Amino acid sequence: MYKALNYWVFGGFGGEKTAIEFIDWAKSQGLDGVELTVGDAIKIDITEVECARIAEFAKSRSIGLRTLATGFYWGTSLGSGDETERSNAIEFTRKYLQIAKWLGAETVLVVPGATRVAWDPTRNVTSYKTVWEQSIRSLLELEPLVQQLQVDIALENVWNRFLFSPVEWKFYLDHFKSSRIGMYFDVGNCCLYVRPQDYIEILGTKIKAVHIKNWTGDSLAGGNLHGFGEDIEVGEVDFPSVIKSLEAINYSGALTAEMIPFSRLPNLSIPDIELAARTVEKLRRIA
To answer: How many CB atoms are located within 10 Å of the residue 148 CB?
Structure first.
């Protein structure tokens, strides 16, 4: 399977390393690809010419750019009840999709909305009904552009207190006619409630991309963000079963390790290139 690494562990949330540096490093690690992030590795106002340079360099190094990610949606939501905020999120997504097209990426990670962002007390609590209705409305508005650009929107299961089970996800995704709106499945994020292989079995080809991470809900971690530790092999994810389940649905998308060691909070201390290298080594063993 195509194995990649998300940018944040290598370059941090402040964009301390360039996309070119990340691609070059990924080549030295024997990866198939990288997941660049919009807002730090790549700025939202990047030009088509600049994207072409990055894409050409990646091609010269035989490094894929199949997926993009972003942290933008935690502060500006497609599921917001505030029309200005929702419009801003749609505008960002239009630019995001265009950047993906320029880079030759297949898929962009999108957070559909959040009823509450626990780590950001400045964000208001939004009703579940509002997030459901407004996020679907926003994605329906984006659906024609997704078809035009031929880039997938993959909605990630994140700790947003919204869409708690694979059956709920399936019902939600069935609102869209385009097969290009699907799920970015994070195998660690779901462990609080459901085994990852259950998601794969129920959602099948609606899964467009996969994040590899792990999580432990033991008493030390307290079942919270600290459960996302520094070793991708330590936790509740049964990786042999996950890989077997992906093979059963003929999954051919990206497997991207997303290593954000929240166990270090309140001082997250990334980038960490040594941790990035260890994660790549473990990713090879997992898949």
So the answer is: 10
- pLDDT exceeding 90 applies to what percent of the chain? 90
Rg, C-alpha atoms of the chain: 18
Asked if residue 6 belongs to a domain, the reply is: no
DSSP state for residue 76 in the 8-state scheme:
S
CATH classification at residue 232: 3.20.20.150
- In angstroms, rounded to a whole number, what is the distance separating the alpha carbons of residues 263 and 82? 33
pTM (two decimals): 0.96
Structure tokens at 215: 């999580």
**86 found inside a domain:** yes
At residue 93, what is the residue type? Answer: T
User: What 3-state DSSP class applies to 180?
Assistant: coil
Domain tally, the chain: 1
What number of CA atoms fall less than 13 Å from residue 180's CA on the CB side?
Answer: 19
DSSP helix, strand, coil percent of the chain (3-state; round to 5) = 45, 15, 45
Residue 13 lies in a domain: no
User: Could you report the per-residue pLDDT of 231-285, keeping only the tens digit for each?
Assistant: 999 999 999 999 999 999 999 999 999 999 999 988 899 999 999 999 999 999 9
Q: Which domain holds residue 176?
A: 71-254
User: The dihedral of CA 215, 217, 218, 221: what is its sign?
Assistant: positive
In-domain check, residue 121 = yes
What single string gives the DSSP state of each residue in 87-148? HHHHHHHHHHHHHHHHHT-SEEEE----S--TT-TTSPP--HHHHHHHHHHHHHHHHHHHHH
